[in-house]
Amino acid sequence: MLLLSKFSKNKIIKISQKSFFSSVNRQFSKPWDYTSKRSHYPNSQVTLVLGSQWGDEGKGKLVDQIANEYDVICRFNGGNNAGHSVVTTINGKKIKLGLHLFPCGALHEKTVNLLGNGTVIHIPSLFEEVKLIEDIGIDALSRLLISSHAQIVPDLFQLIDGLEENEKSLGVAKKIGTTRKGIGVTYAMEKDRIGLRVGDFYGIHNDVIQKMQFEEQLSSLMRICKGRFSYLLDPKFCSKEDRRKWDEYTDIKRAMDRYTKYSKILSKHNTVINTMDYLNDAIKKFGKKILIEGANGVLLDTEYGTYPYVTSSCTLSAGICTGLGIPPRLLKKVDFNVIGVAKAYQTRVGEGPMATELPKEENTEMALKGGEFGVTTGRQRRCGWLDIVALKYSHQLNEFDQLILTKLDILSGYDTVKLGVGYRLKNGQTLHKTIPIDNSNYDDLEVIYETLPGWKEDISGIRSFEDLPINAQNYVRRIEKLTGIFIRWIGVGPDREETIEKLH
Ligand code: GDP
Ligand code: IMO
Ligand code: MG
């Protein structure tokens, strides 16, 4: 196979993969085992929890479970498109919390919860979550820090996101099936350098000059939006209620009143700061422990996901450097650990390819069994068997130190369970560790499955790996073998306690 081409005196010299590696190997007597450098210790100074599939893998549960061992819990990407569930019992009362923006350290009173510069924030939704947490009797606002650089999601962007989806549904372009939370519109405006940042309005309640400047920014943004998006008011995509919302959301006075109020509330606890300075000091000067909560999933990453059926942020481990302002070299110096979260089967919400997706009836059966309904939109999630090819691809992009395999309990009761271990493309090519770049390849793609015997027992009460039915153990071991990733924990229920720690 051809690996590299380089120019020499206008002549292209092709170097084959074989000769490239043999020439490299000549320089080393023994190949370096890079896996031996991996941290298997989950309790590192900086730990990242990342969804390895298309989101909803169970990140929230894990973050909540380990948050008490950390000082600061951070989000680096996305906004309230995320829906992270936390289930626990406090003072004898069962609590199920669906968090969208507030990090899942919410229920641990000693943690600081931080929204980094890479996040996009719909302030009213954030306040709703703060209220939800405070209604449980836990202080939230005083433990929240927001980057002054984070982009604001104005109400209008959420409306535009929805109207654009309506328009696409009519066949104008590919419908993505977004959460309609304005995420794509906000990141697009940021890249276009006309978006608004939290630091732009923070302080306007007691600074007349800043207030005037923000009003000018806001007015200019509204002018641009009216120019670009008024066509969406076409009754073909826009209901009367949406039209009413448009008028409300483009009203500058209303918006100014709201942002002035938000500024006042946030200033009570000095919530908006330079989080980049804060985090770097926390790590370097004070040796604090940082837990980073990924949103969405690796296969929804804008660059590496199944584009265009993706979200609009970087969902990869690489995203924490830009989304929080932590330099890669600092991560090299501290003990840094990346935990991949993978569901024991697979789900996806919205449009886009999923090679191992089940046919309709079995799909619904698995969705009902697993309670697969979105935390953010309530949509039924599409279900399928675990895709090892996609998981290996995800691993290559993130270099997981270990995995948590969630929802193994949901697979109880199947006669056989399947693993998608390869893709056979129409042109005869087979893929084992990377997904196709071109989505059209999915149309005729054949998945190569390995079928394993299932297990009947309810495993939700089991707490040790050796006590699992042997077929469940074999399923887990087989995933480890195929992916080369150590599975450190296994989820057997939604509660904090319903987890098996597997030491080897
Ligand atoms: P996230 O977006 O990755 O945080 O995941 P979601 O919260 O959107 O979806 C995961 C769902 O599975 C939630 O309802 C969790 O309470 C639930 N859950 C997490 N781990 C397990 C598990 O091991 N078993 C079962 N049965 N449910 C789980
Ligand atoms: P958590 O953090 C599942 C999907 C949407 C849609 C696509 C783009 O709970 O795992 P967007 O609103 O981001 O522009 O939608 O991405 N999506 C998610 N799917 N879980 C999520 O987050 C998701 N965040 C976005 O369904 O297909
Ligand atoms: Mg979710």
CATH topology assignment of the largest domain: Adenylosuccinate Synthetase, Chain A, domain 1
What is the CATH architecture annotation of the largest domain? 3-Layer(aba) Sandwich
| Strand percentage | 15-25%
**Overall helicity:** 25-40%
Number of helices: 15
Pfam family, one: Adenylsucc_synt
Subcellular location: Cytoplasm
Cofactor: Mg(2+)
Keywords: Cytoplasm, GTP-binding, Ligase, Magnesium, Metal-binding, Nucleotide-binding, Purine biosynthesis
Quick rundown:
This protein is an alpha/beta fold. 33% of the residues lie in helices and 20% in strands. The chain folds into three domains: 43-150 and 269-338, 3-Layer(aba) Sandwich (Adenylosuccinate Synthetase, Chain A, domain 1); 152-265, Orthogonal Bundle (Adenylosuccinate Synthetase, subunit A, domain 2), CATH 1.10.300; 342-501, Adenylosuccinate Synthetase, Chain A, domain 3.
Q: How is the topology of this model organized?
A:
Blueprint: E1 2-8, E2 11-16, H1 17-26, E3 46-51, H2 59-66, E4 72-75, E5 84-90, E6 93-99, E7 112-115, E8 120-121, H3 123-135, E9 144-147, E10 151-152, H4 155-169, H5 183-191, H6 198-201, H7 208-229, H8 240-249, H9 252-267, E11 272-273, H10 275-284, E12 290-293, H11 319-324, H12 328-333, E13 336-343, E14 346-348, H13 360-370, E15 382-384, E16 386-387, H14 388-398, E17 402-406, E18 416-424, E19 430-431, E20 446-453, H15 470-483, E21 487-491, E22 499-501
Parallel strand pairs: 3-12, 3-13, 4-7, 4-12, 7-9, 8-10, 9-11, 13-17, 16-18, 17-21
Antiparallel strand pairs: 1-2, 5-6, 14-15, 18-19, 18-20, 21-22
The protein binds guanosine-5'-diphosphate (GDP), 6-O-phosphoryl inosine monophosphate and magnesium ion.
